[in-house]
Amino acid sequence: MSLSGIAEDARELSGELARLRHRLHRSPETGLNLPRTQEAVLAELDGLPLEIRTGEALSSVVGVLRGAGKGPAVLLRGDMDALPIAERSGVEFAATGGSMHACGHDLHTTMLVGAARLLADRRAELDGDVVFMFQPGEEGHDGARHMISEGVLEASGSRPVAAYGLHVMASVVPHGVFTTRPGPMMAASDTVTVTVTGAGGHGSAPHRGLDPIPAACTMVGELQTMVTRRFDVFDPVVVTVGSFHAGTQHNIIPEQVRFEATVRSLSAESHARVKDAFVTVCEGVAGAHGLAVDIDYRRLYPVTENNAEEAGFAADTVRELHGEQSVEPARNPFTCSEDFSRVLHSVPGAFLALGACPEGADPASMPNNHSAQALFADEVLDRGAAAYAGLAHRRLAAAG
Asked: Burial code of 204-234, b = ≥16 C-beta within 10 A, e = fewer?
């Protein structure tokens, strides 16, 4: 069966995929524990010739499809968790209750279910096994690490020869277009909490206390100078302070200031260096002001690094499925992060982005992923399902 047959069969599933996506979208769950989502996925996979197992520390689902051939395994991953965002998208199937699939993971889950159906129908054609990785906890909970520790990479009996994931984009990428690149695809992500401690007092007599606010403000500014002066402009680092808390009233010098930052880097080298640079700035400013500082620096996800050959293979596969215009090479990495990086650090593979803004919309002006107004089009579901299935089908054939 040709890959064009996969695309045609995926289009025939479009209505069922949209209904599943709407069901998942109406009932979002966050974190590692997604019982309703897990139940929905298990129900959709029921009856397919898959070996199914569920997670112990998280509500994951792993399915293994045994092909007719005795070749290796390929892994396909779809994440399932939502975000703690109150939805304002305006769609008929919008979620209520304060959580939302604002990053499109409901589409990823649906696409991977679609791929399982497409490949199950082609089981006799597969020259090896396919591992379906339905993952909770991508949004800051490191679900991929948990699933790896529970053995997802050995689920078929041998480590996969390749792994593929994709992510829908509500903006930036045109509707229905896939993009990928060799090397860094998404940034490493760290989180930092800085607590600056001085001595409180009356706002009219700052010399009688130790005011932590000016020092903390200086830290925020100097961190921006640090990333432009300590790191190569062609290997950039981003530091964004997204939370800053201090004081209770205009005439009271507080004892403490606390701010939180996200740190993004696009190479293993910069990721290794940025922690020390961040700490040096904050400790230096604190020392100059006679203040104490506590820095809780946590590495979250490493760089999502595509294998060059696998990225090229993935792009060629999508072109064969959906036409030459369906792929636009990514000129630059995305500075968002992904715990699929954990998989790609152990298995060669590729991560792709898929434009999912409404057809005809200007992707440059649409709300971004993680926005309460983010919109994702059902019309890309069959394209993503076919891409997942085509990648596994073609990669197993190449390995055979």
From this structure: eeeeebbbbbebbbbbbeebeebbeebbeee
Tell me the pLDDT tens digit for each residue of 229-288: 999 999 999 999 999 999 999 999 999 999 999 999 999 999 999 999 999 999 999 999
Residue listed under structure tokens 């399915």: 63
CB contact at 8 A, 253 and 202: yes
Distance CA 278, CA 281 (A): 5
| Cβ proximity of 82 and 99 under 8 Å | yes
Distances (CA, A) of 351 to 141, 183, 221, 237, 368: 19, 10, 34, 21, 19
Q: Strand, helix or coil at 311?
A: helix
DSSP 76-111: EEEE---BS-------TT---SS-B-TT-HHHHHHH
Cβ contact 100:373 at 8 Å = no
Q: DSSP secondary-structure letter at 266?
A: S
User: Rounded to an integer, what distance in angstroms lies between the CA atom of residue 398 and that of residue 250?
Assistant: 68
Instruction: Name the residue with tokens 């001595």.
Output: 199
Question: pTM of the entire structure?
Answer: 0.94
**What's the DSSP call for residue 339?**
T
Residue 55 corresponds to which tokens in the numbers above?
């997670």
Q: Which of 92, 88, 78, 97 is nearest to 29 (CA)?
A: 97
Q: What is the mean pLDDT of the chain?
A: 97
Phi/psi at 273 (5° precision): -90, -25
Distance, CA of 86 to CA of 97 (rounded, Å): 7
